[in-house]
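go over this chain:
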Amino acid sequence: MEDKSDVAGYMEPGGKNATLVYILYLVNIIVPFTAIVGVIFAYLNRGKSTGWVESHYTYQIRTFWIGLLFGIVSALLTIVLIGFLMIIAVLIWMIVRCIKGLQLAGRNEPVPNPETWMF
């Protein structure tokens, strides 16, 4: 059984919460709308943490909005069939960004350039 303080650690600003946001983004592939919960956590905790975690919240917020933008554009372009390929590309882009973020968070390292559009 988990200690209550362990669960609370995932809800408060810090490394555990940043890891939870990445996991919620990845779970969104199977369970829709979990990414919305993740971005809410990122917004609520940005500015409340220090050091390396702050860069992760910026990276996560940008990942959500850029992914949403290109997801919508891809969905609209399914009319001309290229959108299906774009949806796959956006999905791969999101997975790679989340895995990179999880690796860095696991090592307690900041995201080197949290405002990048790429990886």
Remarks:
- The chain has a mean pLDDT of 91.
- Residues 52-76 form the longest helix (25 residues).
- Helices lie at 4-11, 15-27, 34-45, 52-76, 82-106.
